[in-house]
Amino acid sequence: MIHDRKLLILLILGFIISTILGTISHEFGHYIIAKCLGYNPKINYGHTLLIPSKQTKVMGNYDGMLFSLGGPLITMLIGTIGLSLLLILKKSYRIQQELDTTPW
Predict the structure, then answer these.
(1) What pLDDT is attached to residue 78?
(2) What whole-number distance in Å separates Cα of residue 1 and Cα of residue 12?
(3) pTM
(4) Residues 6+ apart with CB under 8 A from 21
(5) Cβ(24)–Cβ(45) below 8 Å
(6) Partners of 48 in the β-ladder
(7) What is the separation, in whole angstroms, between the first and last Cα of the chain?
């Protein structure tokens, strides 16, 4: 019973940390695109802002589309890398009868 409680706590903490890192990396995708397009972005936890300045141009439709796609593209890239690693490494773990944190 103690093992189950410890595993539950580890899984909950892993989920929380993964959610935070996933959100930050998603916003970083928006940030990278904005910087490459010449804007002045600033990352907050839940969104990426474009800070206006005298040199900043008005964002057009094409730039807006690229800016919007930056976050989802990074999220999909990281997800694809993670899934690929799971598929590559799945053979190295023995089939387990119980849930365990060893493969992490």
Answers:
(1) 95
(2) 17
(3) 0.78
(4) none
(5) yes
(6) 43
(7) 22
